[in-house]
Amino acid sequence: MQKEKFRNKTDLRICVVDFPYPKRVRHSYKFTYNLVRILKNVASTQYIISDNLAEYKINDKNIHLREIGIAPHFLRDIKPKWFSLLLWIFKNILIQLRICINLLKVSKKVDVVIFFMMLPYTEVLPMFFAKLLGKVIIKVPLGVAPRDRIYAPFVYKLFEKMSLCLSDYYIPEYETNTKQLKRYEQLKYPQKLLPAAHFFVLEDEFKIMKTINERENVVGYIGGFREIKGIVNFVKAIPLVLNKDNEIRFLIAGEGVLKNEIEKLIRKYPENKVTLIDWIPHEEVPKYLNELKLLVIPSYSEGVPNIAIEAMACGTPILSTKVGVIPMLIQNGKNGFILEDNSPECIASSIIEVLSRGNSYLKKIANNARYLIDEKYKFHSIVERWRRILNEIDKNLLAD
Hints:
Blueprint: E1 10-18, H1 27-39, E2 43-49, E3 63-66, H2 81-105, E4 112-116, H3 120-132, E5 136-140, H4 153-166, E6 169-170, H5 175-183, E7 218-224, H6 231-244, E8 249-255, H7 259-266, E9 274-277, H8 285-289, E10 294-297, H9 306-313, E11 318-320, H10 326-329, E12 337-338, H11 344-355, H12 359-376, H13 379-399
């Protein structure tokens, strides 16, 4: 970990709990690592209950990692479906029990438990147990799942309400998370709501290495191959683009449950027009972003797509649906572009329109995007935001 130095650490002893997502959902590792990196500068001690940090070397005597030792699977990974569902339920219960055991083992060494990036039905049992242990519970989700994109929305909403009731504090990642909760009528206890606290950390490697003028007409997608990401719609938009402009090429990078479906679609397209590669190691992402003239984010839902911030830092214009934090990042036509919807037809027409505006216009877009990142996503400002939040919690504990 990098050696950032900050003063005035809170005396709070923190335990971070996150969910051991299936290994191929690799983005979860980075989120947890970023939170740990931020908190190590504001808290005296951290205990981490996670299986998502295996690829990161954390050499800090004040950070203690405890592994859960089991991960769930995606329901479609195992056949038949009924067996996959039963095994999935069993694994999720077992994971929660192991989290509870680890919480018991560190109980005397922590004051606050942060439930981070967990789905509501995976955190209720550990939250209840932490409450029995007398710990302050903070819920920090990545976002709020859209009701039309989840299974059994009534059950999901019930667990979501339970987790909010068990939480002492709720820290949204961005203000848009709060708006979503209000829209879904989930904020029954507004006194629990704390200011939004980003946990995205932008590395120095994300910078402009190639100007727009030096890049070819390559349009990219970098992310998970899951339905909620809108990846299939993007792939289906490719022939529509090529019918209008045969000079455009495409780069698709990632992995996930839809990989086979995506490969089948791409086989029908001209071989020299579409490049499909596996998941890119994070340290290589800046290189690929600097080859793109446009990055498309066609998601149905997002919290904060980190790839958007990374692309803006690399001077790569973004074309995205209006999801999650995107409306806070992108001013359409000023520092990026907003899709009206994520249908293949809309994606295709928007790509053609954006690229037709020329390099000088896209260079202005890229420069405006980079300016925003420099102003709002410095590591120091994010750490200070977390410091203020934790100090407020510390004061409340002393008052009690």
